[in-house]
């Protein structure tokens, strides 16, 4: 009996170990199928459309804190309703190698964005950019006020010298320090004035880049029309050469307000007020700039046209009428006064609001 059982194993025609191999093969197939299903599910989750933005908005703003870990980032995205599932996002970020390449900042995630798109934006640092615009002729007080009211910026706004900021539109990001933005603004002015100074006309009555900025700030505040800037600059250059007073209203106003609007027309008592900025009383340039001049005004004072003009006055169109002699200037003044007399009591929007006094440049 025992000999019969012994002779029946292994079964005829089946090699030893084949059952084990068959089991292993079956396991491999099962694992491959499961892995393929998981991969397919992962791909589906990776490229599938995400949640729609709340209220039908085209996009959702998400702010990722600097130094946040992957779990915090996934939680922020989930609570902002731009991903359906935080653990899935974490797994896909790890699998795709994105986990340690995500950049902090403010992001605008399109409604229905896939995880693939979101991770692409986070890896590339496709953050939201804001803009801060410094108008030409803004005083430093006004610049600091603009920065203080830029709620995307952080930190204190440092003090800065008048004329040290280049007026233009600056690209800023949420959380950027105001001090860093000011540093960029002053560096831009330094580069600009250096370029213009290197190409300046010879024999100008301007002896330093600082003096160029001072005169450019006066030109900026005196000019209502951009095309008049070179001729206005030439008037002041000619006056400096002749030793004449500049007689510029904006300098008087700056001596009163420190760079803020005066709020009314200059009074005789204010014109007679003895401040270092009163160019009706003091010859030469004021001690500092009176505003932050733009590129065109800086270029105008360092490369002015060659003229003999030493007077200008408003011409009634928003620009100026220029003259080389007092007699010609007085005729221009008479025309301006006739225009003023024929106007309604409210000033025309196109009329200059500062500078260009009818008696500008009258020798004393």
Overview of this protein structure:
The chain is mainly alpha-helical. It is about 45% helix and about 10% strand. The chain is built from 13 helices and 6 strands. It has helices at about 1-5, 20-45, 70-80, 85-95, 115-125, 140-150, 180-200, 210-220, 230-240, 250-255, 270, 295-300, 325-340, and strands at about 60-65, 105-110, 130-135, 170, 310-315, 320-325. The longest helix has 30 residues, at about 20-45.
Provide the fold topology.
Blueprint: H1 2-7, H2 18-47, E1 59-64, H3 70-79, H4 86-95, E2 105-110, H5 115-124, E3 130-133, H6 140-148, E4 169-172, H7 178-198, H8 209-222, H9 229-242, H10 249-257, H11 268-271, H12 295-302, E5 311-314, E6 320-323, H13 326-341
Antiparallel strand pairs: 1-2, 3-4, 5-6
- Strand order of the biggest β-sheet: 1-2
Please give the share of residues in helix.
40-55%
How far apart, in Å, are the first and last alpha carbons?
143 Å
Shape: elongated
Major beta sheet summary: 2 strands, antiparallel
Overall mean pLDDT stands at: 87
Rg from Cα: 36 Å
Number of helical regions: 13
The total count of strands amounts to 6
What is the N-to-C succession of helices and strands?
HHEHHEHEHEHHHHHHEEH
Uncertain spans: 345-364
Number of domains: 3
Q: What proportion strand?
A: 5-15%
Structural class call reads mainly alpha
